Amino acid sequence: MMLDPTAVRRQFPALTGNAVYFDNPGGTQVPQIVLDRITGYLTASNANAGGAFATSRASDAVVEQARNSVARFLHASRPEEIVFGPNMTTLTLGLSRALGRSLLPGDEIVVTHLDHDANISPWLHIAEDRGCIVRWLDFDVEDCTLRLDQLDRLLSPRTRLVAVGYASNAVGTVNPVAEIVQRAHQAGALCYVDAVQYAPHRPIDVQALDCDFLAVSAYKFFGPHLGALYGKHDHLTRLRAYKVRPASDVPPGKFETGTPTFENIVGTLGALEYLAALGGGSEPERATLAKAMEAIHAYERPLTLSLLERLERIPGVHVWGLTDPDRLDERVPTVSFTLDGHAPREVAEELAASGIHVWDGNFYALAVTERLALESRGGLVRVGLVHYNTVEELDRFEHDLRRIATGG
């Protein structure tokens, strides 16, 4: 199945202008169906949960429809394994507190230097609170891949949790998560996966991964600002959540503190309906969602290669991460670089003046820019492609970046 970029772009109202959206790793644009879902919710079923009246019942029904759809997107075994929250960071902080109740002084947690800080700091805080030991898994600074040869040395009978990203939000590396989960389990530890950067690009199957927890953010896969957390039902059931007393004592409700942003939950349903249509279906079933993600990956692969080739042609550009064409499946189209003689912010501002949106800095992947000795130099310039981007946009980007590099 081949994607038609023209047909895809027609569905995104923001893409009718002249801007080039390469800022996608920080948040994608949304298709019309997401806007329709949010507006429809706020005009027809805007009410709090659990009421006896019609709008509350309608709200509960469409929220559960959304929960079922996210469960299919991630291939969870049941919808009760899906917890909604404001974003991945907030969900992770909340779950880390619940997990922290069972940790003892001397227990160990493994984190990586390649992760977004939302999958590092929550565990550092809990380790400090509970007297735990933090072990750091390094990455190779040459290609920004995890040093898996070090992992077995870090794991021990006292390891309680391994936290790892599915794909780096800074340099795009796709990590061998299934292998890491297996090794963590062999050591008797749980595994928490940050899949935020991976979710817009490839299918996710939590059952195949056998991970204990996995978090995504809908605004990275064409939805509104919302986070979703998968947890194995046994874990979510046994953990004591930090919650108010009248709230539900069963998952997922006991982890969804306060009134959820119902309109964004329903907007996320719209994003999954968009993906289902992309996969040739009318409803967000597992098969159509997986087919859509496979088609997205097939479209993005040559686009990623083209981006890397263009960056290599520009004098003074250094790409951080995998650039080998034979290893494209080991990265997502999130590509970061530095340009000799130019601060990342300067490059981003110059491109912004031409209507090209890119990010600069550390993108909350502080451990990455520190490990690469780039934090004090302003970090990186980050370009992130998704399936609504085009070769023509890459032409504009290359032209303007070359102008900046050569002083033209």
How would you state the average pLDDT, rounded? 97
Structural class of the helices, strands and pairings?
Answer: alpha/beta
Helix content: 40-55%
* Helix run count: 14
Termini distance?
Answer: 42 Å
Estimate the strand proportion: 5-15%
Output the keywords.
408 residues; Aspartate Aminotransferase, domain 1; four-stranded antiparallel beta sheet
Would you give an account of this structure?
- The protein has 408 residues and is of the alpha/beta class.
- The chain has two domains: 5-30 and 294-406, Aspartate Aminotransferase, domain 1, CATH 3.90.1150.10; 34-278, Type I PLP-dependent aspartate aminotransferase-like (Major domain) (Aspartate Aminotransferase, domain 2, 3-Layer(aba) Sandwich).
- It contains 14 helices and 13 strands.
- The chain has helices at residues 5-10, 32-44, 54-74, 88-100, 121-130, 151-154, 177-186, 206-209, 233-238, 262-278, 286-313, 344-353, 366-371, 391-406; strands at 20-21, 82-85, 108-112, 133-137, 159-165, 190-194, 213-217, 227-231, 317-320, 334-339, 356-357, 359-361, 380-384.
- The chain has a seven-stranded mixed beta sheet, with helices on both faces. Strands 9-10-13-12 form a four-stranded antiparallel beta sheet, with helices on one face. A two-stranded parallel sheet has the order 1-11.
- The protein is globular and about 65 Å long.
- The relative contact order is 0.16.
